Amino acid sequence: MKTILLEVSDADKNAMFAKSNERKAFNRDFMKQAIENGFEVGLSFKSDNDEYTMPTTKYRIIWPVVMGTTKKGNLAIRGYHIVGQSEKKAIETGIRSAEAENEWRLFNTKNIKGMWLTGRIFTDLPSNYNPQDKSMNSVTVSFDKNKALNNRTKNNPPETEG
Fold it and tell me: Are the C-beta atoms of residues 135 and 68 closer than 8 Å to each other?
């Protein structure tokens, strides 16, 4: 069983981004269901925060693990950034279209311009996952492997394990 993409091929990327034309605006209930079921999610994202504002929307694939309120009072998603462009990486590298792979990130929901299910699922989280996330003041929903497996048997999830 493949749970973390250590290297992402062009074919993998094409498959993950294929459903981006089905994206919808950020929806709290939709994201909650994705977290509860372990559904991989694609995001169109445009940072607009205290540190920087992105000039364009960037696309990325994440495993959403927690949704809650940050200490600053913002609704946010803690997710494992599987692949996709990253403003933080662009700033670090000086390359405008730089991508991040296999990194934990915090996504302010006000910056999520669109979201879609990739058709893939996740079950096991990376070993460096910290359920005691210090960035979150309160948690609305968090991923639970056993509950996700149970939910999937009821809800007919996407077919492919990520």
Answer: no
**What is the pLDDT tens value at each position of the chain, 162 positions in all?**
334 445 566 676 666 666 666 778 899 999 999 999 999 999 988 766 556 655 667 788 999 999 999 999 999 999 999 988 777 777 788 777 777 788 899 999 999 999 999 988 999 988 888 888 889 999 999 999 999 999 887 765 555 455
Domain contains 1? no
Q: Tally the domains of the chain.
A: 1
Q: Take residue 57 and report the two structure tokens written for it.
A: 């929307």
User: Concatenated DSSP letters for the chain?
Assistant: ---S-SS--HHHHHHHHGGGGG-B---HHHHHHHHHHTEEEEEEE--BSSS-B-SS-EEEEEEEEEEEEETTS-EEEEEEEEEEB-HHHHHHHS-TT-B--SEEEEEEGGGEEEEEEEEEE--SPPTT--SS-TTEEEEEEE--HHHHHHHHHHH---SEE-
What's the domain range around 79? 12-156
| Residue 148 counted as domain residue | yes
